[in-house]
Amino acid sequence: MGFAADEAPKAGYRRSAGSPRGEARRRELLECVTEDVAANGLVDFSLRRAARAAGTTHKVLLYHFDGVEDLLRQVVFKLRARRIDNAMAAAREASGHETLAARIRAVWPTLLNEESRLSRVLDQAIGLAMYDPERHSDLAREASRQYLPVLESLCPAHWSDRRRREVAEMILATLRGFLLERLTTGDAPGVAAGFEALIRMLEREEAAGG
């Protein structure tokens, strides 16, 4: 997977942080670049490609962002937020969503059926973190920081903070594994069987009380 990092921020570039007008412009640029990445993926992502997508120059992007890796992190964050919003909407709209197991069952189809381009980009981001952890480990760490609080919020309110975190960690790791298995092997029946086992495990965890 190619990833250009030849445009490090230059000394002397002024940052737009703190200015309402500058912040609005930064959000506008970020939205343009995010849509480009959603459509075309992360392969050969660079500051110059991002500038073309935003209709500006790479120097303008360096005024608003701290280099190509900062821009990449913010793009991936926005795309993950989109995935989370879709999943939480499904959880809220599902009937019988009073249990954790039912909520996870409602969320799962959105992860399987979400726009393939979005899923591909987020998989590529995790791939970058695995391929070059020295540069891109934040892409994986920030994924957990985004997903875990959401999964904890789906757990029963009377559970302790520790128990919610433990179960959320287990759900996140298991669903990640299922998605990777489906992507790499195409074994949809096997993934479906594993998911049903996860649901039964969550039902037993809730039935245990506490």
TrEMBL record:
It comes from the Bacteria. Residues 1-20 are annotated as: Disordered. Residues 23-83 form the HTH tetR-type domain. InterPro entries: Homeodomain-like_sf (IPR009057), HTH_TetR (IPR001647). Keywords: DNA-binding. The keyword Repeat does not apply. PROSITE patterns: HTH_TETR_2. The keyword DNA-binding applies. Residues 46-65 bind DNA. This is TetR/AcrR family transcriptional regulator. It comes from Actinoallomurus liliacearum.
